[in-house]
Description:
There is one protein chain. The protein is mostly helical. The protein has one domain. It is built from 16 helices and no strands. Helix 1 (2-18) crosses helix 10 (161-186), helix 2 packs antiparallel against helix 7 and helix 4 (70-77) packs across helix 5. The two termini are 26 Å apart.
Amino acid sequence: MMLTAARHCNGALNPLHSLIYFVPETEREFTAIGLEPGGMESGGMGSGGMGPGGMGYFAGRAAAMGAVGAGAVTATFYNFSPALIARHLPRAWQAAAPAAVVAARWRAAGAALERLLGADIAQDPEVAEAAALAATATEACTSAGRPLYAAHADLAVPPQPHLALWHAATLLREHRGDGHIAALAAHGLDGIESLVTHTATGKGFVPEFARASRGWSREEWSAACDRLRERGLLDAGGALTAAGTELRRDLEQMTDRLAADPYRHLGEDATARLTGIGGRLSRTAIAHGAFPGGVFAGGR
Length: 300
């Protein structure tokens, strides 16, 4: 019961965090401090944001760890092409120090949330309530073996309620993500194989966007599909076999177990309340164009 509630709460809150990778405010703030513009290698995101695959994405998400190199980011981001990451890091730190990137990211998040949710979002009492609930949940997050969560947890909590909520949503997302990487590795999927099998579920990114935004060539994608077919996880048409479906189910259940403690700490009723408020805010942001079309399977 708690695992399902935790998954639903994550689904409700995650759009509030992940919009930072697509909104135009991100590119505006990052280019102002010297980072290179652009998202996907194929020519942009369609929404103006420095989406997955661009210098701003890697620098923005990694900056809390300091001036790390491509190896650390390859390990912690997992499903990106190492060659793509190496084109941007550590070169990004020559343009902007990590502290400047962190500050720019805060500015982008604040501006985007105010545009998408309303200029008075900081005065919404439910936002302050959700920020407090999410912060309580993060009290049970653990740093051991969770490098991205640990780095972001070291950042000071901003005083504005909408940014405090965004920060807590970021912590919960990275805490779950670090555990998800552990589950992927435990189930024998490398970065590109994890991406191929996830798109084959019909959830998340559409395959072409997933491939291009993560920097993999069509040849690399095809080779990964061949490996997965040899393991009996994909069929000839690229769909998951029964074994592939079972593997994805098992690793998602492991991810749920590894991510459950914050919500268990928060409690069932408070988790439901956080899910309700987070879902309302996310739906509003999505309705106001937080994400570009043609990126997510089934829309968003």
